[in-house]
Write a structure and sequence with these properties.
The chain has about 750 residues and is α/β, with parallel strands linked by helices. Helix content is about 40%, strand content about 20%. A nine-stranded mixed beta sheet has the order 17-29-28-27-18-19-20-21-22, with helices on both faces. Strands 5-4-1-6-7-8-10-9 form an eight-stranded mixed beta sheet, with helices on both faces. Helix 19 links the parallel strand 18 and strand 19. Helix 3 packs across helix 4 and helix 11 packs across helix 15. The structure holds GDP-alpha-D-glucose. The site of GDP-alpha-D-glucose (GDG) has 20 residues, from strand 11, strand 12, helix 13 and helix 14.
Length: about 750
């Protein structure tokens, strides 16, 4: 493992730490993820970063690190309280139930959230310290949802992949999360986000649209200037390992033990972590109902339920354990006898080899989760039974239901149906049928190894064509400073909406803040400043007219000089727009929350305040209608951020910028900032005018048309304040709390 080629991060390291005499010993665990990645590790080196799962005091950390290194693992040490808040407090009490659609079990606590953020930061620091430049980073699961963005913020340019092992719920559920934006933005730092099923991708897309206003394609979306790939990459298991385990003495003993103890009986099997998502009570209640309604099966069927202890510190899990034990007691009390126990309840972890023996002995597997990302037990049962065939009763709420077409699908919420499925299983011919055979070959081919390969190849191919060159703007250092500070006659071109000022749901609410005015005033004392906007002249005059700055209105229709004189650039009237007004009016009627902005020679349909999904749908419709209606006219359609605008073909920010550059040909440095498609035209003209004397900045993330970027308008204002200082000026301090100009 001389040159590691991959970093894997998960909340818990796949090891169990134990202190033996004076030494720490790490024993690798062999969960599904470990197996999947082991196959990849055989082909390329990788290191696994995570929490060792136990509190290690400062003085022993070195020894633990050494023990872990032997297994290719690197520890992220956490304090006791910190680990509790992160793991139990937020991951398991808030995110786990919520992402499984169980809103009422999700209890947000600000202090647990703070720990979650802090721990994600620790992971980010550990990865930055450990990763080589360009080394791909693969992050696993909901406990580390903030990590992708945190890595980006630390300047990591390597490919970052994220796999969500659990479901992503519908927007209606997700919106109840107090920190819904933070988690989404955190995830969107990744290049590839993998899910088990398209259903989860679909929910994720709707959520991105409704929470962040980001539109997407079926398999990707744009976040700033980056493309985030959304993949349906369902995990698999290692069927060869299961085959191997079938021959293990423990597996054979377990299988024979069960068969001998249950001669003449049918064996049903459930294997779950003792988790409220797994539908264990629902399974037991349906089994009880089966025995009640089908007396002839009493004494003839046994249900073995393995319920591996899980998250025992969380109250919901303690309650579940009590409830399950009550149900088992009730069923066995009612239908048991000295020679027959209907439910064999095993509330401890069973070795993997014994599990394989159990799968082999089970005529019917009952996999009945209320919600489950995938559910590996279903896949393992199919692989373990193999040629013997079998019967898989599977919840339609498990991700694996999308893959295992030979299963008998049920809803665990429908007891009658679950009972019927059990009965069908009991009465069906034993052995292999076509449906089961198909599942066996599916599970045999779509292995965990293939899953890991698919994910990694998508991650690597994604980044090959995604060369983002922009860097965060810092006018007080580096090349940006070198270019800017020598300026004697600088020219500053600034878009307004989304650049100087955050968007508002109604365009007329986006008046300049006091800070915008202060910054523009101070800057205009040091440079020639233009606000280059799609807004109408009278609005710009009203909002910014008192400042000694130039302006461009309606994307280049007219230019105002610093003395307040407007000059029409194009001789266009709005008369040509009359025929399309009724079309746009109709879309306002159709789309609640949308509105028209009529300007002198353009017209804009804004849908920022509409339902994002419905607004996007109507926008697509409108684009189609306008394309026909404007065919051959002098107007064309401009698609902005939640606005569709019809403007004259020659009214472009690109042309207006070219004119400004001519008017100010003595400018020795040009600074331009913008955030929308129209601003790309401005950036391109500025960049073409001589790259070495320009600084272009995109607001809202990286963009191929600008050299620098900031995240939001407030950050740009801060950089402009610095710029002012660099040129010898000073932005006056804020007075009081007044936010807008009028
Ligand atoms: C998450 C998602 C997704 C169970 N009892 C024992 C034991 N197991 C093993 C099973 C299986 C694994 O644990 C459980 O996997 P699941 O997929 O059922 O569920 P989660 O642990 O919740 O896993 C899930 C998975 O991630 C992968 O992406 O499928 O939806 O929730 O392998 O065999 N293993 C041992 N003793 C037990 O008593 N040794």
């Amino acid at each position: 493992m001389s040159s590691p080629k991959l970093i894997v991060a998960s909340a818990r390291l796949p090891v169990t730490m134990a202190r033996k005499l004076e030494r720490w010993v790490a024993t690798p665990s062999n969960g599904g993820l470990v197996t999947a990645l082991k196959s990849v590790a055989d082909e390329r080196g990788f290191r696994w970063l995570g929490w060792p799962g136990t509190n290690v005091v400062e003085s022993e950390r070195e020894a633990v690190t050494a023990a872990l290194r032997e297994h290719g693992s690197e520890p992220v040490f956490l304090g006791k309280a910190e680990a509790e808040g992160f793991y139990e407090g937020f991951s398991n009490r808030v995110l786990w139930p919520l992402l499984h659609g169980m809103v009422e079990r999700s209890h947000f606590s600000p202090s647990a959230w703070r720990n979650y953020c802090r721990v994600n930061e620790k992971f980010a620091d550990a990865i930055v310290a450990s990763a080589d430049p360009g080394e791909p980073i693969w992050i696993h699961d909901y406990q580390l949802a903030l990590l992708p963005e945190m890595l980006r913020k630390r300047g990591v340019r390597s490919p970052i992949g994220f796999f969500l092992h659990i479901p992503f719920p519908s927007f209606e559920v997700y919106r109840t999360l107090a920190v819904r934006e933070d988690i989404l933005r955190g995830l969107l730092g990744a290049d590839v986000i993998g899910f088990h099923a398209y259903e989860y991708v679909s929910h994720f897309r709707t959520t991105c649209l409704k929470v962040l206003g980001i539109e997407s394609e079926v398999d990707e979306l744009r976040f700033g200037a980056r493309t985030v790939n959304l993949g349906v990459i369902p995990i698999g298991i290692d069927p060869l390992l299961i085959d191997e385990m079938k021959g293990h003495e423990d597996a054979i003993a377990e299988r024979h033990g069960i068969q001998n103890a249950n001669q003449g009986k049918k064996v049903m099997l459930g294997v779950d972590r003792l988790d409220y998502t797994k539908g264990i009570p629902e399974k037991l209640l349906a089994f009880e109902e089966l025995l009640r309604t089908q007396p002839k099966w009493r004494g003839k069927v046994v249900l073995i339920q393995v319920a591996a202890p899980s998250r025992e510190a969380v109250a919901d899990y303690q309650n579940l354990k009590r409830h399950v034990e009550e149900l088992v007691g009730r069923i066995n009390g009612q239908y048991g006898s000295p020679t027959h126990t209907p439910v064999v309840y095993i509330n401890k972890s069973v070795s993997r080899t014994r599990l394989v023996g159990m799968y082999q002995a089970a005529d019917i597997a009952l996999v009945t989760p209320l919600r489950d990302g995938m559910n590996l037990v279903a896949l393992e049962y199919v692989a373990a039974r193999g040629e013997m065939g079998g019967c898989l009763v599977l919840s339609e709420f498990a991700g694996s239901a999308h893959l295992l077409s030979g299963a008998r699908l049920i809803s665990p919420y429908n007891q009658e149906d679950l009972c019927a499925a059990m009965l069908e299983g009991l009465t069906s011919e034993p052995g292999m049928d076509a449906g089961f055979a198909h599942m066996v070959s599916f599970v045999g081919e779509n292995t965990a190894k293939l899953w890991a390969q698919k994910f990694l190849s998508r991650l690597e191919s994604h980044t090959e064509d995604e060369a983002v060159l922009a860097v965060p703007l810092d006018v007080s250092s580096g090349k940006a400073r070198d270019r800017l500070e020598s300026a004697r006659q600088p020219l500053v071109l600034l878009d307004y909406d989304g650049t100087l000022r955050r968007y508002e749901s109604q365009p007329m609410q986006a008046k300049p803040t006091a800070e915008v005015l202060r910054v523009l005033r101070a800057l205009s004392a040091q440079a020639v400043v233009y606000v280059v906007s799609g807004r109408q002249a009278d609005v710009m005059d009203r909002w910014l007219g008192d400042l000694p700055i130039g302006m461009v209105c309606e994307h280049g229709l007219a230019i105002r000089d610093r003395d307040g004189e407007w000059t029409q650039r194009l001789n266009v009237s709005g008369a040509g727009l009359k025929p399309i007004e009724p079309i746009l009016e109709e879309f306002v009627q159709r789309t609640p929350g949308s509105l028209l902005e009529k300007k002198s020679a353009s017209i804009a349909w804004h849908y920022r305040a509409s339902d994002p999904e419905y607004g996007t749908f109507q926008a697509h419709q409108l684009l189609g209608v306008l394309e026909d209606a404007l065919n051959g006219s002098q107007f064309n359609v401009l698609r902005g951020r939640r606005v569709i605008e019809v403007r004259h073909v020659n009214a472009t920010k690109g042309d207006a910028t070219a004119e400004l550059l001519r008017l100010h040909s003595d400018a020795d440095v040009v600074f331009a900032a913008g955030d929308d498609r129209t601003d790309e035209e401005m950036m391109e003209v500025v960049a073409r005018s001589g790259g070495e004397r320009t600084v272009t900045c995109w607001v809202g993330g990286q963009n191929a048309s600008a050299e620098y970027w900031v995240e939001e308008p407030e950050q740009l204002l801060a950089e402009l304040t610095e710029l002012c200082a660099l040129w010898g000026g000073r932005v006056s301090p804020a007075h009081g709390k007044k936010r807008s100009s009028d």
